Amino acid sequence: MFAAIETSFDETGISICDGDGQLAASLLASQVERHKPYGGCVPELAARTHLSDLPQMWKKLHPDLVSQVTHLGVTSGPGLPGCLLAGVNFAKGVARALRVPVYGLNHLTGHVMSPFMPDPADRGVTTPPEVPYPHLALLVSGGHTELFKVDALDRLTLLGQTHDDAVGELLDKISALLGYGYPGGAVLEKLARTCPQMTADARYDGEFKLPVPMRGSGDLNFSYSGLKTAVIRVARMGDMTSEELLPAEKHPSLLAALFATVVESLWIKVNRAVEEHNIDLVTVSGGVAINGFIRERFTAEANRKGNAVRFPAPVHCLDNADMMAWLLRLNVEAGIDPAPFDADSNWNPGLPV
After folding, report:
1. What CATH number is given for 135-312 in this structure?
2. How far is CA 219 from CA 11, 232, 347, in A?
3. Which of 209, 51, 22, 239 is nearest to 124 (CA)?
4. I want to staple 7 with a disulfide (CB 3.0 to 4.6 A). Which of 51, 52, 73, 87 is the partner?
5. Parallel, antiparallel, or unpaired: how do β-strands 11-17 and 2-6 relate?
6. Helix, coil or strand: residue 58
7. What's the CA gap between 76 and 104, in Å, rounded?
8. Mind giving me the DSSP string for 202-236?
9. pLDDT tens for each residue of 13-47
């Protein structure tokens, strides 16, 4: 059995999977309600909550299941330093008590590999899917917007990344501005879907015109600060210092324009990477990969081009220990040995350590 602990941000997760990648235990404690009054995650509060939640959650695991654990993994980065420290220290203590090897796992690689996890709906399937190489991986979340070429489990090449805001960060900031709270992605998508000018494949032909960021940059990088400013300008009706906002009845149209622009910007870069590297398979993962507009547009575009696109099951898009247990299993099956690590292993794949 492969057990993993995830504490990179504001979700505390503990999961155990078997040799076929099927989950034997999956525990997740969300801190969203705790951080909601502050409009975002408070790092110190998140770290202290992990310290409290981890031992309580571990006690919920059945002793017989725990006795079958042969390998333990823990997210060692990227993430908030205090949160990582809570998870790493707890995991090293558990590993010593169980007398099992402990692996430091990369959070982003966990997301990148999550589209190949067995779907929870297919509990009867015992043969785990093979992870095909090479493939392209788009990671979109609250803190990351990155594009990788994946040649092997431990060979990820960073092709492009955001110069400023990540997509999830953009959505949360616009949600806060318009008064819809934190986190913003789901509620904004629900509103945008009420706009009649939004098509089934996330194209918009309505009142608001927004610039598609980095369209002609010639590279595979992203940027969302300029788009954020453009949306704020429209929301404040042209006066960036005004406290008066666009009437609520126009919010669905503005949000539809926003989502269509974001999806267009993501697809432009992915399509360029597909052509430059001659790779047919694209995966989309991370918290924002749960967004229906991204799934609909990417699926339609891939079908038109004869490519393939894969997404994780929605339950595996947000931060969770399930994907980290799956990543641990992949590491062990690939013959990758554990290496020394600590909570300072806060690195991105494809970049110098």
Report:
1. 3.30.420.40
2. 34, 26, 23
3. 22
4. 87
5. antiparallel
6. helix
7. 5
8. S-B-SS-----TTTTSSSS-B--HHHHHHHHHHHT
9. 999 999 888 899 999 988 877 877 877 788 888 88
How far apart (Å, rounded) are the C-alpha atoms in residues 6 and 19?
Answer: 20
211, 230 contact by CB (below 8 A): yes
DSSP string covering 118-183, please? PPTT-TT--SPPP--SSEEEEEESSS-EEEEEEEETTEEEEEEEBSS--HHHHHHHHHHHHT--SS
And the tokens for 85? 């420290």
Structure tokens at 257: 């324009």
Q: Which amino acid is at 88?
A: V
pLDDT digits (tens, 9 = 90+) for 221-257: 999 999 999 999 999 988 787 788 899 999 999 999 9
Q: How far is CA 34 from CA 8, 49, 54, 182, 183, in A?
A: 16, 10, 16, 11, 12
CA atoms within 13 A on the CB side of 333: 18
- What CATH code is assigned to 2-121+317-333? 3.30.420.40
328, two tokens: 């641990």
Cα 48 to chain centroid distance, Å, stands at 23
Q: How far apart are CA 183 and CA 166, in angstroms?
A: 14
- What's at 212, amino acid-wise? V
CATH 3.30.420.40 domain extents, the chain: 2-121+317-333, 135-312
Phi then psi for residue 20, to 5 deg, are: -95, 5
Q: Which two tokens stand for residue 201?
A: 């494949």
Region of 40 please: left (phi>0), alpha (psi -120 to 50) or beta. left
